[in-house]
Amino acid sequence: MNDTLNWIPTKDSSFTKRKIQMGLDHYAITIIDKESGPVLKNILNGWRTIFACAPKSIELTGSYYTIEGEDWEGEYEKLVFEKEEIIEQLDTFLSFIDKIEKGGYKIYHFGI
pTM (2 decimals)? Predict the structure, then answer.
């Protein structure tokens, strides 16, 4: 999912040298505005469509991590979510994008 966020044309805050970028800056402020809103909206709607097909409890594979003291042995995280919660959060975020598209609003992403 994270890779799809790199398709969004965004703007850096005035504190950085680059003004236009693709995706979310993980360590600084990223601005999502009227130009980037439609792309983000399409991505979120795609996610919503996919998760609407899922069972009530969704189990996803997360990042691979190693166990300290083990010789490079590790495992993937198991991430468990409730379908209704994911759909509700996506719908809320989509409503924010509707406000951006109507004009006068921006979303400021403050990194991870």
Answer: 0.81
Of 112, 111, 54, residue with least CA distance to 81: 54
In degrees, to the nearest 5, what angle opens at C-alpha 35 toward C-alphas 34 and 38?
85
Short-list 44, 46, 51, CA closest to 98? 44
Neighbouring-strand partners of residue 64: 76
Closest CA to 38 of 111, 109, 98, 103: 98
Greatest Cα pair distance in the chain: 54
Q: What is the rounded distance in angstroms from the CA atom of residue 25 to the CA atom of residue 3? A: 13
pLDDT in tens, 34-60: 889 999 999 999 999 999 999 999 999
Task: With residue 96 as reference, give the H or E element that holds it.
Answer: helix 83-102
Residue 79 · residue 61 · CB < 8 Å = yes
